[in-house]
Design a protein that fits this description.
- The protein is an alpha/beta fold.
- The protein folds into two domains: 7-83, Orthogonal Bundle (434 Repressor (Amino-terminal Domain)); 86-316, Pectate Lyase C-like.
- It is built from eight helices and 17 strands.
- The protein has a 17-stranded mixed β-sheet that branches.
- A hairpin with a 2-residue loop joins β14 (275-280) and β15.
- α2 (38-45) crosses α3 (49-57).
- The radius of gyration is 22 Å and the shape is globular.
Length: 323
């Protein structure tokens, strides 16, 4: 729902009933916080009170000129006015944060590196800005001990989260969360490298998303494309929504993959000394993956590769991911 400098795209951002409700609630909250009546707000915006009522009830949405006027009235940016509830909640959950933004206007591949974090979240959204938010409840000096560098070279964006001063990787892995939002319509491939306890991939549509490093917990939700995880840690992977392929590459590791019980997938084991086991209803189960002769275009693929590793695939009604 967020937009960048290209205001023309606004007409395409508030489309669903949920987005209408989100915007109307935000507008009403801003007006009440300013202790302003609908009549007073309408007067300042030079519109009718009925127009304000429609905006606050979700019966209508303002045009781009009125959006800019509303943002100016409450002294906030366009993006803050149209900010998603999820992003607002994430920012509000932390005592300290630092945000870096960069405008793009065409498809890009992404190379993301970081030197330690407790959680890294990569999320697609309906906007035209790359947003990198560093957040913590403990690191008061977050703006000076971490810097985000974004380099734009032709069709590739490099995002590098760097540590400075006395900030150690050990502390970053305990106290730093990294949220990265990239425009859905401008997403090509993404490579992520670093060490984090939790990796979240949500609302992504990409030809390939590859992670290399150390991680213990992985969430894949509402992702279309090829996801590749290269990690030798024992992982707990929750696949709450995938349309495509998931590759798990490990050496001498034991991992668990939780999938929805109605998800159709073909599982393949490659490498040396690897094993795949299955569980349902809390106990061992026979192989419930789709057989090779039954594969069609809608079948997802799960592949275990590497050496001497074990993957347990568990099917549940609704996968849950708790951090």
């Amino acid at each position: 729902m967020l937009v960048g400098k290209n205001f023309d795209c606004y007409t395409f951002t508030i489309q669903t009933e949920e987005e209408h409700k989100m915007f109307s609630t935000k507008l009403k909250d801003l007006r009440r916080q300013a202790k302003m009546s609908q009549e007073k707000m309408a007067e300042k915006l030079r519109v009718s009170r009925q127009a304000v009522t429609k905006w606050e009830t979700g019966a209508g949405v303002p045009d781009i000129e009125n959006v800019k006027a509303i943002a100016s009235l409450f002294d906030i940016s366009i993006d803050e006015l149209l900010e998603s509830e999820e992003r607002s909640r994430q920012k509000g959950d932390y005592l300290y944060d630092s945000t870096t933004e960069y405008d793009i206007d065409c498809g890009k591949n992404y190379d993301i590196t970081f030197s330690g974090a407790k959680k890294v979240s990569l999320c697609g959204y309906k906007g035209e800005k790359i947003r990198v938010c560093l957040a913590s409840d403990q690191i008061e000096e977050i703006q000076s001990v971490f810097k985000v560098r974004i380099d734009d070279v032709r069709k590739k964006i490099d995002i590098d989260v760097r540590r400075f001063g006395n900030m150690t990787e050990a502390r970053a892995k305990k106290e730093l969360d990294v949220f990265i939002w990239i425009p859905q319509q401008y997403t090509g491939e993404a490579e992520i490298s670093g060490n984090t306890s939790v990796l979240e991939l949500t609302r992504m549509g990409a030809k390939n998303i590859e992670f290399s490093g150390k991680t213990e917990r992985v969430l894949v939700h509402d992702v279309t494309g090829h996801v590749e995880i290269n990690s030798n840690e024992d992982m707990n992977i929750v696949c709450a929504g995938l349309c495509g392929r998931l590759d798990i590459n490990q050496l001498s590791s034991t991992s668990r993959l939780t999938v929805p019980e109605n998800m159709e997938f073909f599982a393949v084991k490659k490498g040396i000394g690897n094993h795949i086991y299955y569980e349902k209803e809390g106990g061992t189960a026979e192989d419930f993956s789709v057989k090779e002769e039954e594969i069609d275009d809608s079948t997802n693929m799960i592949e275990l590769n590497g050496m001497k590793s074990e993957l347990i695939i568990e099917a549940v009604p609704e996968p849950e991911f708790e951090v």
